[in-house]
Model the fold of this input.
Amino acid sequence: MARAHRLGLLSLFGTVLYFLVFFQYLSVPLVEDGVVQQIIPVVPWWLLVSFGSYSLWSLGWGLWTFRDCPEAYTELMTEISQAKIELRAKGITVD
Done:
């Protein structure tokens, strides 16, 4: 089973379970009904905020740990100059 299928299946299961509790077809054990009625409607917003904060953290961490690669830069510039030489040999103008 591919990762996307597994994620889709778990998302579908979680969504169905959420709606069953939201529309009171299932009860949450060991939690009073009044507490469930206050918490369940805000769960999607909580998940959205959690995902957003994780995304920002992941982006920030990637920027913080980003390493410059001078070797890759010189290699890329060498390949670009070689490509320009080959294209000029074929009669194509390159600037």
